[in-house]
Write a structure and sequence with these properties.
Layout: H1 7-49, H2 65-102, H3 107-137
Length: 143
């Protein structure tokens, strides 16, 4: 029993791994966007928290903190869902290669993992859309 898969089987696996590899790259880029927005919101919260109570001209800006916290929570959820999607996609790639080396059938498991990964990514995109809606529906007070 050889541990090296046949050339045809390995070539087929490489072509099947292309789509999950692209999804993994897209998820990584999406997570970068989410974390960038989260950093911006956290910085805004910190700036608002630095406003003193004696600063009457800017004290009203602190009323935006609960909305910003809600946005940060949504981004946090979206980031966790995207990370889980990325982990499922990476697991899909690993299982594909391991099963090729072990000469095991993996199509059903790969299909299930693909559906899970895409569902998690879809849920993450939904949470992101909710955060964007809140961010655009109520104007920020940047003065």
């Amino acid at each position: 029993m050889s541990l090296v898969p046949e050339t045809q089987q390995l070539a087929q696996l490489m072509s099947q791994a292309t789509a999950p590899a692209f999804v993994l790259g897209a998820v990584a880029g999406f997570i970068s966007i989410l974390l960038g927005r989260m950093t911006m919101i956290i910085d805004r919260i910190r700036n608002l928290n630095e406003i003193g109570e004696d600063d009457a001209a800017r004290a009203h800006l602190k009323s935006d903190i609960p909305r910003l916290r809600r946005r940060a929570g949504m981004l946090n959820s979206a980031t966790h869902l995207a990370l889980l999607s990325g982990m499922c996609t990476a697991l899909l790639l690993v299982i594909g290669f391991v099963s090729a080396f072990q000469k095991l059938e993996h199509e059903y498991g790969a299909g299930i993992l693909s559906v899970i990964a895409l569902a998690l990514l879809g849920a993450s995109l939904f949470m992101f859309s909710r955060e964007v809606r809140i961010g655009l529906s109520e104007s920020d007070h940047y003065r």
